[in-house]
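Researcher: Please generate the 3D structure of the following complex. Treat every line as part of one assembly.
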Amino acid sequence: MEIIILILSGILFATAIYNLLQKQLLRIVIGTALLSHGAHLFILTMGKLKTGQPPILTDGVSDYTDPLPQALILTSIVISFGVTSLLLVLAYRTTQENKTDNMEQLRGKANE
Amino acid sequence: MSNLAVLPIILPLVAAIVLIFFNSKVNVSRTLTKVFSLIGLGLSGYIVWEVLKNGTIILETGDWVAPYGIVLVMDSLAAVLVMTTNVIAVACAFYAPSAGLGEKENYYFYPFFFFLITGVSGAFITGDLFNLFVFFEVLLMASYALIVLGGDKVQLRESLKYLLINLFSSMLFVTAVAFVYGAVGTVNMAQIAQRVQEADQQGILTTVGILLFFVFATKAALFPLYYWLPKSYVVPNPVISALFGALLTKVGIYSIFRVFTLIFVHRVDLTHEVFIWFAGLSMVFGIIGALSTSNIKLIIAYNIIPAIGFILLGIGVMNETAISGSVYYLVHDMIIKSALFLLVGVIAYVAGTSDLKKMGGLIHTYPLLGWLLFIAAFVLAGIPPFSGFIGKLLLLQGAFEGEHIIIILIGLLTSLLILYSVAKIFIHAFWGDKDAMGPIEKKSTKGMVAPIVFLLALSVIMGVGAEYFYPIADSIAAYLMDPQIYIDSVLKE
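Model: Done. Output below.
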């Protein structure tokens, strides 16, 4: 199971980077979203996937789900949610002000 | 007593929240900002004194014992850097009202200012790798808001790129933390260090270390990951540029400091040797950038990169002299970079342009500004007796002890070119006929010069009074060279 999830997160990373390297702004935004999904799945896998076990450690119980990666992911999801929404607004405003959503034309000039 | 460790995070956070309510009342905001930043400076000064006297302050948040909860570790390095951060905050707080922010001052500038300080202080203090990521995000969020404040065309364009590169490196940071967790099963820095030591830092751990280096190098703008920096630091208001230039990249280099003097120290031949080359290349490419432009703000922004190179050089050489040089240079650079950004802000304001080719003869109208820039150039380049000299001397001495001769030559040559790049501003903007720019109206620089004088005076004192500051840097270096002290103080074994 771990291997499958790792491959999945690898695919997410690859598609994310492909999208990040595009010129259209919206594709880049989607790329960042995919990137964060890949990273989050990866954290989850690092704590080992065990289905059907509670994340509690009591005396005598040796089979439990690691709660720490879940706490980390929760924090990270909230952050990337916030950044993505900011990024969308920023991309929208940039496109409106500069009248283009092509990164090639958003290079700027010397001495501004 | 251990609650002292969290106060530098709480205070700016409270200040930011209070200031949100006074957003529409500019005068109240200004006064409150000055008061809060002065309290912060006093508090951090007290913490430095306390830490140097009684040793590291450790706070286990929520009473969760060390490896399980988040720990805040206020050691001597963190304390000194938090204090420097607060010094810069004070200077910027007093500069901001006259910085020409205009109506942008009402766009929640002051709350974001304090959120930035919160994030920076937190990143310095935390003893938990994932918590470091969280504080990075806190300061980055504030910086996204500050860089785009006002929403000009250029600002929007550059902040988009700034946000994208930082988002990408943050996600890599999370991935690197996951790798660390997968490999050693903890995110507490002291425990990571302990377990890496036990595992003798085998292949996979070094790889994870390099991934972390890549993340921090992006934030710190090292070669070859600095392309995002110059333009995005130029577009916002000078006071925001000063905060960014002084604090943001330094948090990145601080993290490299922490991770590579505490955790990944067992394969110096594989990791630290490479840093020396990155340091040299950062110096060379940074200074080429600075020489290539005639925009005074860009010149200063490019000058950040060689400075980061110098600091990394000390970490790469990794002996006590070089590390103390790095610490000294780090503090020096935070102060002088903010002073220079504020200074070129004033120059661009009085000249009405930031293009060097259109300036000239300013010394007749603004003699004080000219001489301040002259001193600042000397401080930056490391002319004795100013603070840059002490830092560079220690760094190069350390490199000499480590027998890295080529890097010494690169460092010396870079210093010379740094002096030239800033002296170029002095020559083109201040020398020349009185009427070189046509009849200029003398603009008031009231309120803008005092913070710069304050910062420059500190730089001069740090150089002339090195006798008092060097022992502190030396003790920090001795402390950093022995990771066991940090591990023991956090895990209490």
